[in-house]
């Protein structure tokens, strides 16, 4: 797992050589940044490299205390978006946005002068993503047998042990004499959201379609993304209709609703949900599981979806990650 000292030590020489002298001190879960002898205290949120997917996660969060994003590298486009949303950040190249009552610094465009660590999500494959989803949505599952974990997450039995070892090495799993427990759930969920959107979701995408379909009808599938947010909380009128249907029912679904594929202008996006355990599918009635709804909304990369994602997280997810 990335350590704040790894980033700050690397970036120290770049930051101190900038026109404004910036120093830092780490105290537990807080970082004290000193700018020209003025000290500002922040909580910190570490991300190896702030990609578009990670930006969506950051924008969807409601930080309870003053927080600064700490990263290996933040490119100029992401830097502008963070600044425009009043989110403080600092990276190892010397780019930063620090805003307080007495300090305003914005530096962008500095190049990363050292090799970047591999992105966290590249460590996750589809098997990992399925198992992580399973243990986050079912708290008791991690304490059961590997055979049961395999059945619920729909991955090969032989792969379960490898995924659990990976989670343990990343400090998301601890073992007791009496069993196992998932820890740092909020951080693991963030990593899962990014990996799901960037790696898994494209693999289960059937395509874009056009046709006549209504939120009020029984679609023999599950609503995701914007339609699910509307049905759950009435927070937004859907523009993109995200639907999850099992692979063996896709043709029947398309015929029933008279949908035609349209890669250019299609506003109905259909994905496969046959990888989900039947219990998960049955429990959530007309909408897909809230974890997936949240990830769908964040992948929309726009303000209205981000605001809807905050509400879904607050009302359906936050308590599950405690």
Structural topology:
Layout (H helix, E strand, L loop, with lengths): L3 H13 L5 E6 L2 E6 L2 E12 L2 H9 L6 E7 L2 H9 L3 E4 L4 E4 L4 E4 L18 H12 L8 H8 L3 H13 L3 E4 L2 E4 L2 H16 L4 E6 L11 E3 H9 L7 E5 L4 H7 L3 E2 L6 E5 L5 H6 L6 H10 L3 H15 L5
Parallel strand pairs: 3-4, 4-5, 12-14
Antiparallel strand pairs: 1-2, 2-3, 5-6, 6-7, 8-9, 10-13, 10-14, 11-12
**Shape field:** globular
Strand order, largest beta sheet: 1-2-3-4-5-6-7
Largest sheet: number of strands, sense, barrel closure: 7 strands, mixed
* Total of helices: 12
The averaged pLDDT comes out at 86
Describe the structure.
The protein has 322 residues and is an alpha+beta fold. It has 3 domains: 104 residues, no CATH class; 79 residues, Orthogonal Bundle (Arc Repressor Mutant, subunit A), CATH 1.10.10.10; 119 residues, no CATH class. Helix content is 39%, strand content 22%. The chain has 12 helices and 14 strands. It has a 7-stranded mixed sheet with strand order 1-2-3-4-5-6-7, sandwiched between helices. Strands 11-12-14-10-13 form a 5-stranded mixed sheet. Helix 2 crosses helix 12, helix 4 crosses helix 7 and helix 11 runs antiparallel to helix 12. It is globular.
């Amino acid at each position: 797992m990335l350590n704040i000292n790894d980033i700050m030590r690397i970036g120290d020489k770049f930051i101190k050589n900038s026109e404004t002298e910036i120093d830092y001190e780490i105290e537990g879960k807080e970082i004290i940044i000193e700018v020209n002898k003025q000290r500002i205290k922040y909580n910190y949120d570490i991300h190896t490299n702030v990609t578009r997917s990670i930006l969506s996660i950051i924008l969807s969060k409601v930080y309870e205390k003053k927080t600064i994003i700490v990263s290996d590298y933040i490119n100029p486009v992401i830097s502008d978006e963070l600044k425009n949303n009043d989110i403080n950040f600092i990276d190892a190249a010397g780019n930063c946005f620090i805003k307080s009552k007495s300090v305003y610094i914005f530096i962008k465009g500095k190049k990363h002068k050292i090799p970047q660590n591999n992105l966290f999500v590249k460590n996750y494959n589809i098997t990992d993503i399925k198992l992580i989803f399973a243990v986050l949505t079912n708290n008791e599952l991690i304490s059961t047998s590997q055979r049961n974990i395999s059945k619920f997450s729909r991955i090969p039995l032989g792969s379960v042990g490898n995924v659990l070892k990976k989670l343990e090495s990343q400090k998301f799993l601890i073992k007791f004499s009496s069993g196992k427990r998932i820890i740092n759930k909020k951080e693991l969920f963030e990593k899962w959201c990014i990996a799901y959107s960037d790696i898994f979701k494209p693999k289960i995408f059937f395509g874009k379609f056009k046709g006549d379909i209504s939120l009020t009808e029984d679609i023999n599938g599950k609503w995701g993304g914007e339609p699910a947010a509307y049905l759950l909380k009435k927070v937004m009128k859907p523009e993109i209709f995200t639907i999850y249907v099992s692979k063996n029912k896709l043709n029947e679904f398309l015929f029933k609703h008279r949908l035609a594929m349209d890669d250019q202008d299609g506003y109905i996006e259909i994905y496969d949900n046959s990888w989900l355990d039947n219990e998960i599918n049955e429990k959530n009635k007309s909408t897909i599981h809230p974890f997936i709804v949240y990830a769908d909304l964040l992948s929309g990369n726009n303000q209205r979806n981000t605001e809807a994602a905050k509400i879904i997280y607050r009302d359906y997810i936050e308590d599950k990650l405690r």
